[in-house]
Amino acid sequence: MAEKKERYQNRIELLQGTLDLLILQTLQWGPQHGYGISVAIRIRSGELLQVDTGSLYPALHRLEKQKWIAAQWKVSENKQRAKYYQLTATGKKQLTRERSKWSQLSDAIAGVLQPEDK
Amino acid sequence: MSFWRRKRRETELEEEVQSHLQMAVQERVERGDTAKDAEHAARREFGNVELVKEVTRDVWGPLDRLMQDLRFGVRMISKSPGFTAVAILTLALGIGANTALFSVVNGVLLNPLPYPEPEQLVTLHESKPNFEAGSISFPNFRDWRKENTTFSMMGISRGYSFNLTGAGEAEQVRAEFVSTDFLPMLGVKPVIGRLFEEGEDEFGGSPIVIISAGFWNRKFGSAQDVLGRGLTLDGRNYIVVGVVPANFNLQVGGFRASELYAPIGQWTNPALHLRTAGLGIHGIGRLKPGVTIQQARSDLVRVTGHLAEAYPDANKGIGATFIPLKEQMVGDVKRLLLVLLAAVGFVLLIACVNVANLLMARSMGRNREFAVRAALGAGRGRIVRQLLTESMLLALGGGGLGLFLAAWGTKAALQHLPSGLPRASEIGMDWKVLLFTAGIALLCGILFGMAPALRISKPNLQDTLKEGGRGSGGRKQRAQGAFVVAEMAMALVLLIAAGLMIRSLNALWSVNPGFDAHNVLTFGVSLASSMRDASPDAIRAALRGIQRKLGSTPGVKAMSLSWAAVPMAGDDEELFWLEGQPKPSSENDMSWAISYVVQEDYLKVMGIPLERGRFFTGQDNERSQHVIVIDDVFARKFFGDRDPLGKRVILSSLGGAAEIVGVVGHVKQWGLDSDDKQSLRAQLYSSYMQAPDEIMHLSSSGTGVLVRFDGNTEATAGTIRKALKEIDSEHVMFSVQTMGEIIADSLAARRVSMLVLCAFAALALGLASMGIYGVISFLVGQRTHEIGIRIALGAKQSDVLRQILGESMKMTVIGIFIGLLAALGLTRLMANLLFGVSATDPLTFAGVGIILTIVALAACFVPARRAMRVDPIVALRYE
């Protein structure tokens, strides 16, 4: 079990709510399936962020339920039938809101961490 | 959302997950991994597929979650059909027994009586010095009815048997004499015709009769033109005025829904005119809306007070008693039913504990599953919810099967146990019973589902995963030990209750009733209608003819006509005072004795011993001096040590003196159980042929006969019936019963409650031994490893056996100890159901304790032997 424990410890925990932001942001570049989203996040984060499938799929289904993303079954480049998610109009608005919330949050945290820079 | 859309979403989720996996595999293969490695890695990276699906479904909504839990639950419980079958069957027995008993309690105690505003109805009686709820005289009733201000209606009734002639073969028809208000008060609406109207119940009214729907069908084929037709009853022509609906049913006190209802004023008994007569007339009253029992009581205190002033001779000390109708009908069985309900509740608790035990054992086997699910992010609440869903499924399965068992069992039991249970016909399944069953099933589900759920609520993931699923920790074993202790304690309480009932019934059967009930036949005979207006001498002659004829009928060893009281079947009283004492000022100041009017062979028929003097002979007839015979209670009570023989007694019914010529043994008139506790026990025998002319007159419409016979009951009854017809084809024989049946009937309620309690106790014993067997087998299974090591280290087989049995015994003994303490407290509640045995009878307590210990030992012996035979090599390699 030791290996498993280590793996859990090395991973950067995603803050509550940030997974939604990452998914919406990833989908801005076009429709993508679950596997594609997880790969994209992993690569863009420089292999630092590994999205757990147990978090990814519930998040996708939740976002779909909130109508921020819509799903469609399509055939991938590898002739593989997959469920593709894409941003909806409200999803795009939500992404803007989430992004500004995020930048406020990161500014705020940066301010707390480096007060002397001010 | 429709079922089909749910289903589609489910397959889509599966497809989505599979496509994820395939893409991950494909990418790895493209990077150069072998197909097998790629597959492996992709799966590992993905994690537990079922779990991911599960948490994803969670966001769909609560209904989907429930569906999912159910689906998973069904899968889990159908994976182990043996476990499921045992659990559901156990619960079905527990829930079924509770449902059955509740349907009885519901029908008898809870449901309102099927009459309009039943809470306003009370039964009415006269309270007298010797009787709290005595017979009401017709003159007093008329005054009560006129003078009270708190009742909207009052009615009285008196059971009777008419001799019906001129309509097919002569027969005896069960009837009720009623006053005008009696039927309307109970909400009876005639099918056709009318009920009695005001004044029609008075003396001198015209003879009219209301018939039951059954009688209407039987005798008139339900013809509409029955109204106005005549019926010859006791030789008089009664005009039919109405038909009572088939669903009218009431049995309370002496009243029974009958085939005929006639106005009480038509009763030809001359004593009906007397204020002092005790003729077995009782009443029912309906309180005005808003009137309380208290107000009505003080109202009747006023009314009876006036009557006592107006008629001091007759009414001094006479009051009115009334009892709510429902209480009068079901009061006797209320406590019994509550005791049984408590007993059956224990059975259910034991069943629940058993299932909790099974689930607990099973959940230990699933430790690894829970730990893995928790590690993968399933919340604790999620797992508890899943466990509860599973136990609910079991409980509902058990409840459904239990309901079925109960419906079938109640019907069968009511058919085969004629218990004299009041309102038995109203027992059945209704929404309240269904609600009750659903309620207890859910409660059970939560109750036994909580046990394993609580256990995993503090899981130590690492330990469980590391340990590889081997059961650990004394805490769980202690919990199971506590279950066994509780089961043993509850089973013991039930067994003691059943044991006490068995001992009571045994004690009752061995009570000497004072007579020999074997081979005694009782029946009634009514003479041909032509004898109704015959002279007393002509009636005596006819009765003597019957005596001679029956006396020479084959199979009849002895016979006696019988008037007034019959042991355990009917009572009548004689009022008297001893010669030499001043005449009491009123009847209520006279002495009372139970009165038997019989013939010379009565002692032979009944096997009653003659203690002193002589019994009657054929010469003690209407032309000779009046003589009486008394019982030993009478002799002791009124004469003490003096010799009663030759003393004289003035009888109120005779208006003259009679000499005591003999003393016979006492007979338990009031039943085997309660005779000793009654205040009225002195018994007085008169000679039938010396009875007053009025009694002769009444005899013609029905007198009792007691016969000691040889051989077959049915055959003897048939021979007697034929012999009577040979004398006169209009003579009717009715109400044939053996004395043994009369005694058995007097014990029926007790016998049924004993049988039911025994059934519950047996069920409890079975379940409890299954429980201890299960727990010990499980513990032995868990400890195979440990036992293997110990045997490998040199422990003897007998040591292992001793250790396992010792542990079982510890649990059993603690359980029995707690059970004994609980029983000491609880059996007091059933003290008044017991007879001849104390509620804390040491013999029962000790005996039952020993039986339970032996059964528990036997149940543990099988797994203990298994432990003894553990092969250390196998046990250790098994790891």
SSE layout and pairings?
The complex is a heterodimer of chains A (118) and B (879).
Chain A: H1 2-10, H2 18-27, E1 32-33, H3 34-44, H4 53-65, E2 69-75, E3 81-87, H5 89-113
Antiparallel strand pairs in A: 1-3, 2-3
Helix pairs in contact in A: 2-5
Chain B: H1 3-31, H2 35-46, H3 49-58, H4 62-79, H5 81-110, E1 121-127, H6 138-147, E2 151-165, E3 171-178, H7 182-185, E4 192-193, E5 208-212, H8 213-220, E6 230-233, E7 236-244, E8 251-252, E9 255-256, E10 260-263, E11 282-287, H9 293-310, H10 312-315, E12 319-324, H11 325-365, H12 367-375, H13 380-416, H14 431-455, H15 461-467, H16 474-509, E13 520-526, H17 536-551, E14 556-564, E15 573-578, E16 591-598, H18 602-606, E17 610-613, E18 627-631, H19 632-639, E19 648-651, E20 656-664, E21 683-687, H20 693-699, E22 703-709, H21 713-727, E23 732-738, H22 739-746, H23 748-782, H24 784-792, H25 797-826, H26 842-868, H27 872-877
Parallel strand pairs in B: 3-10, 5-7, 16-21, 18-20
Antiparallel strand pairs in B: 1-11, 1-12, 2-3, 2-6, 2-11, 4-7, 5-10, 6-7, 8-9, 13-22, 13-23, 14-16, 14-22, 15-16, 15-19, 17-20, 18-21, 19-20
Helix pairs in contact in B: 1-2, 4-13, 5-11, 5-13, 5-14, 6-9, 11-14, 11-16, 11-23, 12-15, 13-14, 16-23, 16-25, 16-26, 17-20, 17-21, 23-26, 25-26
